[in-house]
Amino acid sequence: MELFNHLALGFSVALTPINMMYALIGTLLGTLIGVLPGIGPVATIAMLLPTTYALQPVSALIMLAGIYYGAQYGGSTTSILINMPGETSSAVTCLDGHQMARKGEAGAALATAALASFFAGCVATVFIAAVSIPLSELALKFGPAEYFSLMVLGLIGAVVLAHGSLLKAIAMIVLGLLLGIVGTDVNSGVARFDFGIPQMTDGLGVVSVAMGLFGFAEIITNLESQEKRERLASKVKGLWLSKDQFKAAWPAALRGTGLGSFLGLLPGGGAMLAAFASYAVEKKVAKDPSRFGKGAIEGVAGPEAANNAGAQTSFIPLLTLGIPENAVMAMMVGAMTIHNIQPGPQVMTSNPGLFWGLIASMWVGNLMLVVLNLPMIGIWIKLLTVPYRLLYPAILLFCAIGVYTINNASFDVSQTAFFGLLGVLFVKLECEPAPLLLGFVLGPMMEENLRRAMLLSRGDPSVFLTRPLSAVMLAAAVLLIIVIALPNMRRKREEAFQEE
Amino acid sequence: MSRIRNPKDFWAGSLFVLVGIAALVLGSRYNLGTAARMGPGYFPRILGLLLIALGGVIALRGLRTQGIAIAAWRWRPTIVVLFSVVLFGLIVTYAGLALSTVILIVLASTASSEFRWKEALISGILLAALAVGVFIVGLKLQLPIWPTFLTG
Question: Which residues pair with A192 in a beta bridge?
Fold first, then answer.
């Protein structure tokens, strides 16, 4: 019953006109960038962060969260209609969704994606509400040693499930941690790695780092490769499902929701992993797996439900433990910090309106996506005809204004440009920027907890192994690395990401 | 340089080692403290050593494993895009949002091989109007619209 009281409080916050408006803005922007290639949710959130200063924290978070799950939605639309995923998490939807569109079933595929996503969104909302209370109660018992180990596990987990070289990803985390502690040390007041530049005593801005690495670098590499976009937009008619299609789709959506909700909880999880895993499962349980890749509706319903569920439940570790598990959640940490909210288990008790309001807004946002967005598909597709040469300068402009207005400082803009340059270098060297961003936001927290844990143990590092919870988490982190490093698993992991 | 068989790994690893060394050198000025009472230099030193170790292994692997060459860096987009943004940051308080926007858009557009003067200029003017509408009228940001040397 407690659960319903909480949700009721959440809806009373989420359903105020102002918050509904921000949910709408967030989901619309999310859909927009989901449709458009070349800009993802991380860069968009970075771009919009500065404009949320004046807002109520809850409104700001509602809008930014909407961008994330809205992007899943927009990404699937382009996957189906033009075989081009706007976001990586909807790459799988291309496989069968676009084949359905080619068979003239674009309407059914879009409706499946929308309904499966909405269903998953509803379930995930309740799931978050149910899991959050026990998890944050557990987290309140954590001491600094447990927190430190949890962050190690979170960071390792995040890279194990990412693709690319494991070692490079770990090195990127360490680099991120190092960048994260630039600026004045809170304990001693010493300005670290500031190169004598006064603006750097406050540390590097999360907006600059994220926008440079994810926004500018992406634009530059796009301009280098000069890919020509193919347009095969099919006519959309009859946005509905036949009875048989519905029958085939709903069990897949149910499985996808369950799988996605669970995978979203894991560090490194979230939308993309959930979608890939769900596609694999659907292929396994199907009576005739050969239909997949040729327009099987289960191949749309499962992954679409899974990516939306995963996108939402990936908020759980952030909201209950204060640990971001992917780059988008790292941006949410940035947003909460800007509004003076320390992410962690205390948010739920100290700021229940914000906590439950954000969760309820996800349900509201999902409803908006279905009701408002389905009829707007034509407009989104039209936007795709805008050539990239007109699009990218506009994206740059909004980035530049956004980052400039944080402090009204040209230094911030130059700093962002520096990270843009670094980002291009990382692309050339095949180093993923996401682990760096995670390390960056966790850097100060990790150092603080390490210090406290060691202070309490009087300098004895064995504290991390003698406290049972901490030991379990560190063991899990080591186990993850070993499992992934085994040659057999490594091959499997590479195969799993081949389908991208 | 024929020994480097996987240049991406080799150079990435070298970069990590370099940053790790820099962290140790720059961080040597900060008080290390003890394990129980860590000074500002303690955590950076751990990270620096970790980064050197990881980077070393990655670079060594770059000598042993086979990999593809690093894609050629076409400098034009990088320079043009980053320069136009930095320039915007430098001039916006003096030149005002409207003019700065037009300059940013036209300049940034030249990074594309499909650059067209007229199109870029029109797009710049339209976006300038949009930016002024959204950011100054709508969000009430403290930025001048017109160049300060004109308005005084």
Answer: A183
